[in-house]
Each structure stands twice: as C-alpha cells, then as structure tokens.
Amino acid sequence: MIAVVYSGSKTAFWKITQNGQVVAHCNTTGLNPCFVDPKTILQILNKKVALVNNAENIKKIYFFAAGASSADRKEELAKTLASFFKYSKIVVENDLFGAAKAACYDQPGIVGMLGSGAHCAYFDGKKPINNNFGLGYILGDEGSSNYFGKILLREFLSLKMPKDIETKFTLTYNLDRPQILERIYNKPQANIFLTSFFDFFTQNSKHEYIRKLIDGGFEKYIETYVLPMAEKYNDREIHIVGKVGAELEDRLRLVAGRYDIKIKSIIKEPIQNLLKHYIN
C-alpha cells in the first residue's frame, strides 16, 4: 500500500492505494508541524478508522505539509508519522513542493499557492527554487483565506461594513468584539480561525463591497508573489493551486489580466494530481 497526503494548515487530504487503486481515503485536521505538536498529531491519526485499519499495511507515504519547510520540521513530522505507521518509508516535503508536482509534474513552471496560505515559486522540474515569500499568516499570506478573514474581521470591528453586510455577518457568526479578540490573541491556532471566514466571501461575492475586498486581496497577491516570478521567468506558464484561487477563479483571472498575467491552470485540490503522479 502507498499513501499520498497533502496537508494545508486547515485540512489534510489522505489517499491510500493498493495496486494503483484507491482503497481508503479520509480528511483530517491539517498537520502543520509549526502549529500541531507530535502528541496532537498522533491523537488526530488515532481518530480515523481508515488510518488505524491500514497503518500496518502502508509501506510508503508521500506527505506534503504546510510548515514542513526546514529540515528539522520535516524530520520531526516524519518521526511522528513513523511512530504510527511503523512499517512505512516516509517522505516528507512542504506543501509548495506538492503543489508544484501537482501542477507541473516534471516540467518547469511558476506555481502559486492560494489556499489557507499564499506563496509562489519557480519550479525547475525537480524542486521549487527557494525565495523569501513564505512569511506566514502574520507577516505574509496576502490573498489567502486567512488574509481575507483578517480583512473581514478588521472591517467588522472598525464599523466599516455596509449595514446589509454587517447584519449578514452578525447573523452568520454571532461574534462580538471581545470574542474575536480573545480568539485571535489568546487562543491557539488563530490562523485556522481566520480561514473559517472565507466562505463568507464566496457566498457574497456578487456584493460590490465584498467584490472590492476580493479584488484588493488578489491585487496584493499578484503584486507580492506572482509578478516577481513572471518578470524573472517570463517564458514559463503560471499555475495556481488552492481553494481560494479555485472558488474565486473568475475574480482571480480578471485581476491577473489587469497585470497582463495569464494563468494556465487553477487546481483546487492537488491531492488528485499527486496521487496520479506517485501511483505511476
């Protein structure tokens, strides 16, 4: 058996295969080693019947995780997984590597991530080339779902929302200022809390106010991440991977067009392409 896993900070997608066929699959909470400690990871794994039942039969795991950017983080995550999947050879790479493989396979290209976090890199066909874009949800991630959550909460707390949107927000989330600030500053995994507001953008994307927030976020994403790569590697195709880009594809393509950026493909869930690649 082979397992292929793609984990953002919010959700990890698991596919288990045997003889080229998917025999089990499940989703877990994202296993970002920057935010989730080894003990919690094992607790998460033990709650999934599909993982418990197949743990001893899986011989190799390809694991792509947000937060697995340094050698130490990769080693820590691999060690934790090995204590659960005792007979598996485990390969851990970061989510950007997984996104690049899903979008380009073994061909060079520019790969942008636009999901719970945001990133962009040139993929030379073997690995993404290192850059300084990965600043995380506090200093970076412009255009991501946690970025949009941050913008939405700031607008709400600053009383800048149109009345109809404010009413809808209040009815949807039933949150006040003390609750929001407590959740952001005193509770763990504030980044996951921020991503939880992304659905509000997709559900209200036709509203002029929300549309302007979306376009503003995508402008920052294009300017911060994509333009530097497009200018440096101007002969390469551009691919976007992640839920935000996929669910707001029309707005993303429209904004990209303002910068003469043409997006070749947008992939919502890279796990399917990764599965095909590693099965083959």
Which helices and strands occur, and which strands form pairs?
Layout: E1 2-7, E2 11-18, E3 21-29, H1 38-46, H2 49-54, E4 60-65, H3 71-84, E5 89-94, H4 95-104, E6 109-114, E7 118-123, H5 136-139, H6 145-157, H7 163-173, H8 177-185, H9 190-195, H10 198-203, H11 208-232, E8 238-241, H12 243-247, H13 249-258, E9 263-267, H14 271-279
Parallel strand pairs: 1-4, 4-5, 6-8, 8-9
Antiparallel strand pairs: 1-2, 2-3, 6-7
Helix pairs in contact: 1-3, 4-14, 11-13
Q: What's the gist of this structure?
A:
The chain is of the alpha/beta class and 280 residues long.
Q: Alpha-carbon distance between the termini?
A: 14 Å
> Which superfamily, in CATH terms, is the homologous superfamily of one domain?
ATPase, nucleotide binding domain
Gross morphology is globular
- In total, how many beta strands? 9
Beta content: 15-25%
Main beta sheet strand tally, sense and closure: 5 strands, mixed
CATH class of one domain: Alpha Beta
CATH architecture of one domain: 2-Layer Sandwich
